[in-house]
Design brief:
alpha+beta; Jelly Rolls; six-stranded antiparallel sheet; 6 helices; 14% helix
């Protein structure tokens, strides 16, 4: 294989044959190219962009472990699995050894320790039900980025450069700026911004798994997995609520917010007129990702589920308690038949207003 010239769209890119792709899937790069930093550093918080569910999972990296509430076999599931690896490093430092590398050696190919950016993509694909779409088979994977890029070309799912990136794309980098399948590094696109920059979750970037904010300068191309489940099926319903005027609260008393204005409520999640309920769990429950920002008197706020069939008695209180003035996204599952309230406690008598409450929800 020869490295192409400084071409624009891969017209001089050497292509591997299918046999060569299979033969080099598990090849380790002899020298680990230095991974260039992104255009800025960003938070490694896995909940930076809520995906609409929150589940307790066992240690990742040993077998497919996605929970029933996660849309298995989608771009969303792939991104969720990648987020679970954020912060993963090497032990000992600089050794290329960690649980992703161990998983790859046990489940894909016994190749030892080496550059693990594409091993990470493989592990995340298998963990999320996307092994066929991302790697070509339930027992297959890639450690060698050029082979992985060439495989996407061979199945017609490749595009040179970074002109139309989308969440869930497998993004390949070449640090000399060439548009080529001879890639140095790989990651998973998490979010794309209007200015063309994007967030990617990348394993083995400065010897850790991290979120990078990049432009397309070094994007060699992208592979777009043919996900087995339709992402459109995961589109949420949506309710947005606020107040026409600040609400008064009594010191040290836990009280619910009574929303007086519907900013968006196409599915009638909130009863007409002044009403405390945000959403209902419906017949089978509902997954919520509720973004809240309230301001005013000092105090705290949280979510609570109440039972309308039992005089609105408290049903569940397992949501975080957040200081007033601090935005927060609550992810969880509202149980069937329950109503979701916003509860507020102030330190002294005072007014509290809703800056925003935006709640995507997925009926089960």
């Amino acid at each position: 294989m020869t490295t192409p010239g400084a071409g624009g769209d891969g017209e001089d890119d050497p292509q591997l044959t299918p046999d060569e792709i299979e033969a080099t899937r598990n090849k380790l790069l002899p020298v680990q190219p230095k991974v260039l930093p992104g255009i800025s550093e960003v938070s490694q918080d896995p909940d930076l962009f809520p995906l609409g569910f929150e589940v307790d999972l066992p240690e990742p990296g040993v077998a497919p472990i996605m929970a029933a509430t996660v849309p298995y076999g989608t771009a969303t599931a792939l991104i969720y699995s990648a987020r679970k690896n954020l912060g993963l490093g090497e032990s000992p430092p600089g050794s290329n050894k960690n649980r992703v590398v161990t998983w790859y050696n046990l489940h894909i190919a016994a190749i030892g320790a080496g550059s693990w950016c594409d091993m990470g993509v493989t592990e995340e694909a298998h963990d999320s039900g996307n092994a066929v779409a991302v790697c070509g088979g339930k027992d297959k994977g890639f450690a060698y980025c050029p082979s992985h890029a060439a495989w996407f070309v061979s199945i017609g799912r490749w595009k040179y450069g970074g002109g139309d990136l989308a969440p869930g794309d497998i993004v390949f980098y070449q640090w000399n700026g060439h548009r080529t399948t001879v890639a140095d590094h790989v990651g998973i696109v998490e979010k794309v911004f209007a200015d063309g920059t994007f967030y990617a979750i990348e394993c083995n970037t400065d010897d850790v798994c991290a979120r990078r904010h990049r432009d397309t300068t070094y994007v060699a191309g992208r592979g777009r997995p043919a996900f087995s489940a339709q992402q459109e099926d995961d589109m949420p319903n949506y309710v947005s609520l606020s107040l026409k005027a600040p609400q008064k609260f009594t010191a040290k008393k836990i009280e619910h917010m009574i929303f007086t204005q519907e900013d968006s409520d196409a599915q009638d999640a909130h009863a007409d007129g002044p009403y405390p309920g945000i959403v209902s769990g419906g017949k089978k429950g509902a997954i919520i990702s509720c973004e809240v920002n309230i301001v005013g008197a000092a105090g705290t706020y949280t979510l609570r589920e109440v039972d309308p069939k039992n005089k609105y008695a408290t049903h569940k209180t397992n949501y975080a308690v957040i200081p007033i003035g601090t935005p927060h996204t609550f992810n969880g599952l509202v149980d069937a038949g329950m109503h979701l309230y916003l509860m507020v406690t102030t330190e002294a008598d005072g007014d509290v207003n809703v800056k925003y409450l935006k709640c995507p929800y997925w009926p089960r």
